[in-house]
Amino acid sequence: MNARMLPFYATVVIFLIAYAICYIQFPAMLSTRVIGNLLTDNAFLGIVAVGMTFVILSGGIDLSVGSVIAFSGVFIAVMLRDTSMHPLPVFALLLSITTLFGAAMGLTIHALQMPPFIVTLAGMFLARGMAYVLSVDSVPIVHPFYEWVQSTYWLMPGKGRLTLIGGMMLLVFLAGILLAHRTRFGTNVFALGGGVQTARLMGVPVARTTVLIYALSGLLAGLSGIVFSFYTSAGYSLATVGVELDAIAAVVIGGTLLTGGSGFVAGTLIGVLIMGLIQTYITFDGTLSSWWTKIVIGALLLGFIVLQKGLVGLTGRSAGTAGGR
Amino acid sequence: MTSGQASTLLTASGLTKTFPGTRALDGVDFELHAGEVHALLGENGAGKSTLIKCLTGAYRRDAGDIRLDGASIDPHNTLDAQSLGIGTVYQEVNLLPNLTVAENLLLGRQPRRFGFIARKAMNGEGREMLSRYGLDIDVARNLDTYSVAIQQIVAIARAVSLSGKVLILDEPTASLDRDEVRMLFDVIRGLRREGLGIVFISHFLDQVFEISDRLTVLRNGRLVGVRDVAGLDRLQLVNMMLGRELAEETRDHGRTGIDYAAEPRIRFSGTGRSGAIAPFDLDVHRGEVVGVAGLLGSGRTETAELMFAAAPKDSGSVTKNGKVLRLASPRDAIAAGFGFSPEDRKTSGIIADMSVRENIVLALQARIGWSRRIPRRRQREMADDYIRRLDIRTPDAEKPIGQLSGGNQQKVLLARWLATNPEFLILDEPTRGIDVGAHAEIIRMIEELCANGMSLLVISSELDELVAYSHRVIVVRDRAHVAALVGQDITTDRIVSAIARPTNLEAAQ
């Protein structure tokens, strides 16, 4: 089989083994309740990780998303507190802001030929700063629409609850998979990851694709912010610090090459679930410090990068191309 | 096919392209017929790639006219040229290794259903495109799972399907083995039968003679001549490429006066690296200039890189004054008293933003270690000394080297190595791209250095120059050292015939 599928299979196998270990220790972990919670708790991370997958597939990085999520929460909370607008138009307004924000970063990256790392780092500070400007304190969200969304769920067999936000994440993944692997835009994203210069020579619209990729990441960060506001019922400018790094970790653990050009949106879902599973295990155990999550994720990440490095070396040698770019 | 009756597909007349400091193309004419394979030949810097880039729109020409099918064209970029009918395939396959073969073939025009890519239709279309070239492979697999030859054919299939009139093949065979070359040539012949005009660029003269109908030779940005390949003499072709007129010779044979009975200073035995250069033995004596001749891509630069340990060697050993040297990196080589001024000074020699002084001190500082910094005053003195001795034209030692002319950059590079006081200095094309006056000065310096007891190895395409300063000339061909000429035997005639047909020469010796 294709060697590039290996990281994806590795992720799936690790997930299954991890789940089996959890199940042996705590049989209750295989209930739909746990699965429902896994989806709900990681909904915001999953959604933003889909956007991150596209960015990383194209060979870029988006460090701004954590700040954009925090900004989104504060923006929604302040708008709902200070105006009489219904949440839905507020959401529409927010999504256009974050999408434009992402598009602007994409345009800067392309037009000025700047490294995405620097541009989105600037975006990270900018979005966090805007959140502070709106409110330094945590702003609670009280609205009937929020109560309705939070109390709406589909009762799965076994009394597990699939909440709206959990379902939303699954839908975003489905759309992401189709977009990445079944459209010309998706192929262009992979093409950029394979080599911008070559892609340009082959007629890929580099400017449009770059702008769209970061706009998509901004859109999904905004959506993730909305989901996070449902999850916490508040907007706080200090929330979700470092979530961009969690998202990058989920993408890499999901088998996407950090250098771009190869990977799977579906893998990112597994990556997110692995991270959630570790968290759940620690909750079940009750005696472990939550820092163990970070340690295990760190170890997994290292393992995956080594695996990818090995694969790249392997395929590079089999193709017989000496002196790479 | 003779040029008279064939229909002309592409003509370029009076093409001129100037870059700061050099005229890369100077009024070059080029004509391509439908249904012919036309080879484009010339050494490095001859203007081949500039010509190609002007034809494909990668560069805008400064003057001249390009006509395709009789109509004047002015491609703004490669995509533009492609839609006009001119497709290009490069040595480094310009496809995306991380996409499937079918995606590469149809990128940007994948068949769709309801906005989504129709995978089956795409793969079917891809298979059909390749079947025309006798290639039956799984197009749903990633491109990089296939050999370079197959990738090359995929690139050709894409280029032909997008352009369809003119196909430019830039060094397509450089990384292919014999069977793969045959496969590629079958494809090229098929396209010729279909009436495409094919421009073929290669350093392998055998391949040029095998596949081409006609050829155009460029030298120093000028057109040297157009010939029918049938009936063309190899010797004549090499003469055209190296640009030697039989009449004008400065010195008719190489220098003598080296005592070959003495123990050599440096001895390379069985040094080689598979794929780069076959194992060779070479002794270098005190005060000797060893010239290396050969066409571009013959393995002459590889020889220098192995000697300087810039590329790892597979086999062989190096001794200096009878003692074995362990050379694992250029650092070791510098420590052993070696120096190396590379061919492409822009990318691997000078550091353009650093001053003349810093560039001169670099190698010496590296040799004594960065912890023991050479005092600023001493650096100044050294720089001023070399600027005076080598007559480097610069207002002062603090000027960034990138602002100097090519000849003066070359002298600074030379100064860098002279500052380390090497016993063995390797110069790869020391006179490339510099004006005639500077040529003579560099040659004078080479002679002076060896008179002072330094040993030199000089690689050059300028045969007259090699003859002028060499005690011995090594001829490199097809990645092997094929002949060695000593003293009186060194003449441009002998070098040319050794490059053109090594077998004859070996028989003569």
TrEMBL record, chain A:
Q: Which InterPro entries match?
A: ABC_transp_permease (IPR001851)
GO terms for molecular function, please? transmembrane transporter activity
Q: Which GO terms describe its cellular component?
A: plasma membrane
Q: Which keywords are on file for this protein? A: Cell membrane, Membrane, Transmembrane, Transmembrane helix
Note whether Signal occurs among the keywords: no
Q: How does it sit in the membrane?
A: Multi-pass membrane protein
Q: TM spans, by residue?
A: 6-26, 38-57, 63-80, 92-112, 118-142, 162-180, 211-231, 238-258, 291-308
Q: What Pfam families does UniProt report for this protein, alphabetically?
A: BPD_transp_2 (PF02653)
Q: Where in the cell is it found?
A: Cell membrane
Q: Where is the signal peptide?
A: none
Record's superkingdom? Bacteria
Q: Does the keyword Transmembrane helix apply?
A: yes
Coiled-coil annotated residue ranges, if any: none
Record protein name field: Sugar ABC transporter permease YjfF
Whichever gene encodes this chain, its name is yjfF
UniProtKB/TrEMBL annotation, chain B:
Location comes to: Cell membrane
The family database entries (Pfam families) matched by this protein are listed as:
ABC_tran
State the superkingdom. Bacteria
Membrane-crossing residue ranges in chain numbering: none
List the PROSITE patterns hit by this protein, alphabetically.
ABC_TRANSPORTER_1, ABC_TRANSPORTER_2
User: Which keywords are on file for this protein?
Assistant: ATP-binding, Cell membrane, Membrane, Nucleotide-binding, Repeat, Sugar transport, Translocase, Transport
Q: How does it sit in the membrane?
A: Peripheral membrane protein
Q: Which residues form the ABC transporter domain?
A: 10-245, 261-503
- Give the signal peptide, or none: none
Which SMART domains does this one have? AAA
One GO MF term attached to the UniProt entry? ATP binding
Gene Ontology CC terms, in alphabetical order: plasma membrane
Q: Which family does it belong to?
A: Belongs to the ABC transporter superfamily.
UniProt protein name: Sugar ABC transporter ATP-binding protein
Q: What is the lineage of its organism?
A: Bacteria, Pseudomonadati, Pseudomonadota, Alphaproteobacteria, Hyphomicrobiales
